[in-house]
Amino acid sequence: DKVLAELIEPYELRAAKLREFLEDVKPSLIYDIVPLGDPYGPSVTDPELQCLVVSEETRRGGEAVNKKRLENGLPELALYEILLMKDPDHSQNEEEKISSSSLRQRLLGTLLRPPRRGPALPSRPYVIGLTGGTGSGKTSIARLLGHLGAFVIDADKLGHAVYVPGGPAYEQVVVAFGAEILNEDGTINRKVLGAKVFGNPERLKSLTDIVWPEMAQMVKKQIREADAQG
């Protein structure tokens, strides 16, 4: 449940940076950096450990470690609590402490790698495909892009538009799936249609083979309109 987990560096790189930092602080000490495969790591099984450094927010975790150690027949660790440095410049959505979560938050909007030039691609209009699962923020990002001047094409709305009477896919869908998918007013009942195709890969493909090309043509038409508008 880490914030922006996709932007967390690989373990090997983080461990190397940590080792470099620790050796810079005190080269004479020997450090053993251990990957944690569970919430406790070696802290509940290593009899040689004597102390656990915690912060105010992780003290309860330290107490849970000691409880586990007692269950395992090991002595409790001394809990040494440190104060975390505050970040005076944190924004409303960032943590008060100096943290990697806030640093990842600040990476948003920066390029992770240079744009790839495609010789076959026209320089304009510049088309962005915005995808993601339910609740991933597509609508919010589309709204922000719209405020910045982007011409927003909502594929969900086009998906509804292809089904309406007179729409480009209406006749084909009715022929393929029968008049029983129609409401009394002649509109397609999407729930009845959905019951026919979901769970049936062949019928679902039949539907998408009809609908998706028509949606693609509608998208291309809107892109041309956006280009004409500048």
* DSSP summary, beta strand count: 2
CATH H-tier superfamily of the largest domain: HUPs
Q: Find the CATH topology of the largest domain.
A: Rossmann fold
- Give the overall form: elongated
Order of helices and strands: HEHEHHHHHH
Reading side by side through the largest sheet, how are the strands ordered? 1-2
How many domains make up the 3D coordinates? 2
Which architecture of the largest domain per CATH?
A: 3-Layer(aba) Sandwich
The mean pLDDT is: 90
Strand content: under 5%
Helix content range: 40-55%
Give the helix/strand class.
Answer: mainly alpha
CA-CA gap between termini? 42 Å
Rg value: 28 Å
Poorly predicted regions = none
Discrete helix count: 8
Protein name: COASY synthase
Pfam family, one: CoaE
GO molecular function, one term: dephospho-CoA kinase activity
InterPro entries: Depp_CoAkinase, P-loop_NTPase, Rossmann-like_a/b/a_fold
